[in-house]
């Protein structure tokens, strides 16, 4: 599904990612851990096509297409979804109209019939109930004045509505209380199936109580310095990152 080969990324002429390789097949869950500043958010920003993240070398193929030629909205249409570490506020645009517009933008790109207001409301309310989100969050401006937990749940709601193929979650579990973490991971598990893949960036071992990843990677100074299975998470919890820095 996703093939990242020898990727080098710079931000403002500073080299951040260096010769990064990553291969993700349909249905796989990959966890990425690593110290602060190692380049985890740079990777998610690059995959989503954010400005200012310049690919200076290497390639990214998504479903065998050159992702680097696609605009952010085209990447979303192809099925890439990123829940950013710091979700953005959009004053003046209601969550409902934002979500409805986003759903129909990807449907249009995928040549699927547009979703009318009635079916949209039905689906969004069903998903909000699963995420235990109060209804009034639909009528408020996107993320404006939302608590940290509400913003993260709103990201998962977007993910549920857009039905992406590759879901990238950048520290969606940071700063959440235990109940909110359960709700977020439950939403993720609802979407987890044989075709959809996940990249989950996290600092927390407790993710393993909810999610069974196929691979765990450690990103350090812009490289993946180690990949393994879930036992790597336990090793990191015990030993920290120092033993991997080489
Ligand atoms: P992580 O998510 O692993 O904590 P980041 O990808 O956020 O790491 O950051 C990696 C490095 O790149 C850091 O040194 C950070 O300061 C730098 N960086 C990332 N984004 C920007 C940006 N937009 N402008 C300047 N520096 C950036
Ligand atoms: Mg960080
Ligand atoms: Mg980060």
TrEMBL record:
PANTHER family tied to this protein: ABC TRANSPORTER I FAMILY MEMBER 6, CHLOROPLASTIC
Family: Belongs to the ABC transporter superfamily. Ycf16 family.
Keyword list, A-Z: ATP-binding, Nucleotide-binding
InterPro entries: AAA+_ATPase, ABC_transporter-like_ATP-bd, ABC_transporter-like_CS, FeS-cluster_ATPase_SufC, P-loop_NTPase
GO CC term, one of those recorded: cytoplasm
Protein known as: Putative transport protein associated with Fe-S cluster assembly (ABC superfamily, atp_bind)
SMART domains: AAA (SM00382)
Pfam families the record matches: ABC_tran
Species: Blochmanniella pennsylvanica (strain BPEN)
GO terms for MF: ATP binding; ATP hydrolysis activity
Presence of keyword Cell inner membrane: no
Record-linked Gene3D superfamilies: P-loop containing nucleotide triphosphate hydrolases
CDD domains cross-referenced by the UniProt entry: ABC_FeS_Assembly
Limits of the ABC transporter domain: 2-246
């Amino acid at each position: 599904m996703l093939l990242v080969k020898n990727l080098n990324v710079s931000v403002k002429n500073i080299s951040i990612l260096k010769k990064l390789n990553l291969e993700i097949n349909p249905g796989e869950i990959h966890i990425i851990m690593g110290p602060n500043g190692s380049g985890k958010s740079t990777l998610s920003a690059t995959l989503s096509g954010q400005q200012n993240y310049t690919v200076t070398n290497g390639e990214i193929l998504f479903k065998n297409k050159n992702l680097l030629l696609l605009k952010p909205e085209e990447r979303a249409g192809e099925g890439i979804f990123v829940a950013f570490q710091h979700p953005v506020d959009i004053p003046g645009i209601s969550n409902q109209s934002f979500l409805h517009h986003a759903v129909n933008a990807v449907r249009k790109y995928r040549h699927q019939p547009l979703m009318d207001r009635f079916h949209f409301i039905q689906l969004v309310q069903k998903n909000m109930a699963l995420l235990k989100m109060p209804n009034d969050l639909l009528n408020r401006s996107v993320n404006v004045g939302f608590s940290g937990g509400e913003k993260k749940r709103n990201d998962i709601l977007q993910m549920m509505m857009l039905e992406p193929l590759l879901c990238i979650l950048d520290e969606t579990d940071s700063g959440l209380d235990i109940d909110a973490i359960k709700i977020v991971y439950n939403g993720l598990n609802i979407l987890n199936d044989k075709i959809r893949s996940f990249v989950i960036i996290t600092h927390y071992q407790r993710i393993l109580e909810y999610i069974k990843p196929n691979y765990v990677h450690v990103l350090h100074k812009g490289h993946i310095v180690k990949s393994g299975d879930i036992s790597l998470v336990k090793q990191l919890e015990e030993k920290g990152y120092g033993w991997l820095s080489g």
